[in-house]
Hints:
The chain is an alpha+beta fold. The N and C termini lie far apart (100 Å). 51% of the residues lie in helices and 6% in strands. The strands form 5 sheets. It has a 4-stranded mixed beta sheet with strand order 7-10-12-11. The chain has a two-stranded antiparallel ribbon with strand order 1-6. It contains 31 helices and 12 strands.
Amino acid sequence: MTPAESRALPAPHPESAVGSDEMVSYRTPAGLFVGPAALTSTSTTPTEAPRATGPTVTAPAETAAPAPADTAPAETAAPAPTETAAPTETVARTETAAPAETAESVAAVPSQVWWRRWTRRRQHLAVGGLFLLAALWVTSRIWLDPSGRVASLYTGDPAQVQFFLAHSVRVVLHGEYPFYTEQFNYPDGVNLMANTAVLALGIPMVPVTLLFGPAVSFVVLVTLGLAGTAMAWYLMLSRHLVRTPLAAAAGGWFCGFSPAMLSHASWHPNIISQFLLPFIVWRVLVLTRSTRPVRDGALLALLVAVQAFINEEILLFTALACGVFLLAVLVQEPARWRAAWRPLGAGVATCAVLAGALLAYPLYVQFAGPMAYHGLSDAVKDYGNDIAAFFAPGSPTLGGNQRANINLAPNYSEENAFFGWSLSLIAIGIVVWLRRELIVRALAATGLLFAVLSLGERVSWWDRELVSGPWQVLVRLPLLDAVVPTRFGLITSVVVGLLLALAVERAWALRPAERRTVRTLTAAGLAFALLPIAPMPLRMVSRPPVPDFITADRWRAYVGPDQTLVPIPVPSMGNTHGMRWAAATNLDFKIPGGYFLAPRNGNTGDAGRFGGRPSGVGQMLEEVATTGRTPKLDDRQRRRFADELRHWRAAILVLPLRQQNAEPLRRTVEELVGPGRQELDVWVWDVRALTDRSV
């Protein structure tokens, strides 16, 4: 073959150079179970990639004999002489080698050359930059004042996460025990493994927390969680599922900025930090055709171990989704199991052994350590989506209406569906259009199953109960009793994102006479589906600053190592300002109470509840802070308060001057322990003489 003839050959897809465990055929998007039954047989309408959108690919299923189970098709189809050809050179050579191409398709090339001249790395950087700008747009109102802004509802979760970030500082700088702490809910303490202490996020953020404080670390995590998740899915999709950059970007965008992700962004950075999930999913699929299952199982185990320290619930969802998807594939084509069961079994066994060894002790602490609980609070066990939620836009989106959504989700932090009418109809249309493809059918089955489970124990339509849901039975199973069912909608969101990517890829690859019209209609369809749920800046409200008495370290003159500073009102699920005070000092002082999950009666193994042991005086002060009404007190209540202060080993009580209903609270506390004094911007009551056990 002459050099001129070799230049006329179409260049391989850039991914053809990767190993057999990584490459998938363009015609076999999932790359699953390569062996007896090729995925190409699942579609009766073969799709051909247009020459004007990227390097020409020769599909292995059409140009070579079927590959054995341990060999990727791409290895046999990649022509070696042109492996290093640049994408722009490939375009030129393809054009000269295809004189029969229509004038319209040739004319369409110049408008896309500017993008195709970019290297893949430059394309990835451009898409990543867009995702980061979108994440900054969503969090823009928090960035204006990270310490003084908080989500308009349910302010407890950000305070809790900031407390956990400060705990990571103590773990790194002081070698503190990572899985349990007495710095809040003193003296009982809190089991951090059972409370998602985000160690895998907090420890890398230690420099930011030290320099700028946990409030800044919180908004950084939210921003990177959204952008990082979108980028991770984009990279995985562009490398292993689709070739068209727009298809990968559309899928990554929805996985990172879906209404469900936006709903959690104000409160749960651990839930939206899903940037490891695409790679976990891919490594599971690689195991089905791996030639080195032990190595691949070990890589999967490392990813699993890290994700466990971000959020175990999301890890469980990922495992369930992978299992259901693989089962859906095997039900349709059982013959694939013969080629897949050996590497899959060996890889999963390796992953289980290695991940089990890495996580054995942390999981022991979580389930059998001090302050461990079994099962969630009754307050969240029946959290479920309303069927109508799947057809309404989410509250933090362009078309969202917070008031209209009030009865469609458990609360505004759990809007785990809310795709809107347009996207819901398009998702159904995609499944109908591509129903002949195995991967589409398997994805549809997976998304539908978890959508049904997300409805919870009682299926409802516009807040009207219809029937009992299947979750009523599954909730009794181990591990599932600790799952919030509405969050199964997060799995459905990812499935919809993958369907969008596949649909754009297939539409982009069509080659009718009016190709430009088809692509214009595809872009219009994307806009129609995604514009109503386009992300908007998260709603924020101002919150009281940390008192100068705390930031100026004036508290150090009163509080010893084994004593507590008691914020007024006492920290609880509804009053978490004291947790922010402690986090601002990197937990240098202890506080009683707080917002966390603990065993109901303080006994390890009890069912979970929010907060520690009930405090009668704490509840009374919380009521005063809410209503402004001063209660009538007697000697019995004073003795009870003194007993609680001794139990907490309280050194001082601190009431900010800016606290809501500060004056009624001050009068109430004075009736309980006597007069206090104003110091800087707080009222202080020194109760060491009252709580000293040696007196």
